[in-house]
């Protein structure tokens, strides 16, 4: 009965099973008693057989019911464990897919820039190719890591910005403001790059002249705040095709990792766009 778990239509079979066990138990008891006592000596026992039948039936039924409930509980626990494992695998697969989408998104832009530079500025094209190689090598090393120190994320982001500065030259200027204490905090790998890519895309593509992108990072109430501010042209911002991929991927990744939908905030003023993410820091 250890693995027996009847369906709703099989409870009648369980009752018959209990009756059969009760009859067998009484039969074995009578057989053993007859080996040691004669029939007249067992007359008193025979008179109480109906009561013993009821008692045996109730005891066996209770054991069966307890066993069934135990099996149901174990099956429910096992099903919950399987469900959590499946959800984890699905979540990890989706996170991996989101991260893999970010690489071609940036890679195609960089390759187009390298192609454009080959004829006019071959040395810059060569430099950008080596920088792109270092960037992708660092990305592949992080594929199996969910959370990394902020210091590593910033180093990886600096590689990305070096490539972008080759593309845009003196037009792109980036500023970082943070305290040393935040460098040991943990962040999802490549969580800042889509924000920066979004800022560069809407800042430099739509504005003539130099563009300054400011990044501010601080820790407050066990939340790491990462805020990136860039200028933008209100007339062209909403008409830009393909916008929103980076922000939507960040929103989805943060939800899959932290199960929260309030970790990405976007704020727009007259000519300034600010994106801020919050990364919970658990002890």
Automatic annotation (TrEMBL):
Q: Which residues form the Signal transduction histidine kinase internal region domain?
A: 93-172
Q: Which SUPFAM superfamilies match?
A: ATPase domain of HSP90 chaperone/DNA topoisomerase II/histidine kinase
Q: Which UniProt keywords apply?
A: Membrane, Transmembrane, Transmembrane helix
Q: List where the protein spans the membrane.
A: 12-33, 53-72
Keyword Transmembrane helix applies:
yes
Q: Give the superkingdom in one word.
A: Bacteria
Task: Answer whether the UniProt record assigns the keyword Membrane to this protein.
Answer: yes
Q: Which Pfam families match?
A: His_kinase (PF06580)
Instruction: Give the protein name, as stated in the record.
Output: Signal transduction histidine kinase internal region domain-containing protein
């Amino acid at each position: 009965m250890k693995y027996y778990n009847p369906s709703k239509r099989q409870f009648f079979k369980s009752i018959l099973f209990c009756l059969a066990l009760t009859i067998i138990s009484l039969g074995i008891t009578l057989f053993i008693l007859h080996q040691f006592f004669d029939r007249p000596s067992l007359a008193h026992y025979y008179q109480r057989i109906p009561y013993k039948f009821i008692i045996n039936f109730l005891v066996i039924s209770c054991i069966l019911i307890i066993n069934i409930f135990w099996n149901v509980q174990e099956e429910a626990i096992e099903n919950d464990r399987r469900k959590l494992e499946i959800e984890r695998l699905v979540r990890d697969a989706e996170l991996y897919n989101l991260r893999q989408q970010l690489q071609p998104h940036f890679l195609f832009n960089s390759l187009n820039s390298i192609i454009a530079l080959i004829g006019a500025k071959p040395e810059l094209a060569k430099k950008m190719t080596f920088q792109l190689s270092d960037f992708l090598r660092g990305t592949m090393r992080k594929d199996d890591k969910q959370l990394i120190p902020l210091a590593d994320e910033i180093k990886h982001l600096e590689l990305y910005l070096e490539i972008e500065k080759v593309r845009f030259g003196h037009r792109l200027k980036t500023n970082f403001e943070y305290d040393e204490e935040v460098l040991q905090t943990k962040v999802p790998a490549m969580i800042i790059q889509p924000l920066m890519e979004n800022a560069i895309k809407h800042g430099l593509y739509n504005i003539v002249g130099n563009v300054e992108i400011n990044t501010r990072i601080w820790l407050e109430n066990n939340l790491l705040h990462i805020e990136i501010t860039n200028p933008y042209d209100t007339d062209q911002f909403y008409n830009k095709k393909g916008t929103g991929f980076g922000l939507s991927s960040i929103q989805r990744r943060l939800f899959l990792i932290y199960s929260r939908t309030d970790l990405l905030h976007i704020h727009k003023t007259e000519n300034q766009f600010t994106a801020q993410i919050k990364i919970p820091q658990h002890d």
